[in-house]
Prior knowledge:
alpha+beta, Adenine-n6-DNA-methyltransferase TaqI, Chain A, domain 2, Helix Hairpins, 3 domains, four-stranded mixed beta sheet, 11 helices, elongated
Amino acid sequence: xxxxxxxxxxxxxxxxxxxxxxxxxxxxxxxxxxxxxxxxxxxxxxxxxxxxxxxxxxxxxxxxxxxxxxxxxxxxxxxxxxxxxxxxxxxxxxxxxxxxxxxxxxxxxxxxxxxxxxxxxxxxxxxxxxxxxxxxxxxxxxxxxxxxxxxxxxxxxxxxxxxxxxxxxxxxxxxxxxxxxxxxxxxxxxxxxxxxxxxxxxxxxxxxxxxxxxxxxxxxxxxxxxxxxxxxxxxxxxxxxxxxxxxxxxxxxxxxxxxxxxxxxxxxxxxxxxxxxxxxxxxxxxxxxxxxxxxxxxxxxxxxxxxxxxxxxxxxxxxxxxxxxxxxxxxxxxxxxxxxxxxxxxxxxxxxxxxxxxxxxxxxxxxxxxxxxxxxxxxx
Length: 380
């Protein structure tokens, strides 16, 4: 069935954000919570970090707040009044457009919205870029029906995502339960340094590698996630370039990788036998297994106490990088190796459960995408 098609700015008000004056910022909960950009988005609702005493652009409950710089097209639902910074815009439905229908339509149209981003330094959207989008509208009753179906499917996704987060929390809690907080060392474990407990500490290639369309994977800090390596967005190099780089840095199973620039301090164990290379933004630590196990060292470095130490060490340099010297000097507590092995067994049991939930989440996401496509093609 064909429905009437409208420009988006004909069926909703578009409120472009504006940065408040610097002196108005605060963290004392005074004024309006500030949504400066997608970095202040939670999974569905805003998650602001700062407040401002002065605001010229303010959201209302029910507005859809959309990222218009950096993570273009990401979105959250406003559950109250927020100051809108210049990295976001609020979309306020007019009569005839259901708020939840707009929410799901924006998710369906995220790629199209992102493709409109323009700019040499960083991409951003204008009011016209948003307003010229075309949306087909059935009756409000039909919009409500479709939105409710998609709402239920989205709830299932959110619950699965929450379960995965709980597994991450369980892993962190298991470390603290077995070894205590490294900041206070309640069990009085012997202390050493990364340089002493590691066979090798190095970072990736300093020169710009010669990249190829395909070949051996070349990883950077962006691929080092919290607890795992993300191989989904990598560069490639040829065998000769890999052979040259591996003479200095040759990652292997059992190593621990650390992001040393950008988001500093993410830690992931190497759990693959596939060869790959690193660039300078990622570091490699190869533990002496007689002193520390891979699972223990990765868990230790992921504690808030050690993440804070890595950030302080990075900020002490002029370029905010975690260099090899400060990395080697990081303190490491050394519990009995038997206890470390037991920790590894527990962590791997948690990881298996997390993996099963993650695989199920991927299937749910595929089903949700298909369902949303049918909803906006009039086939739901």
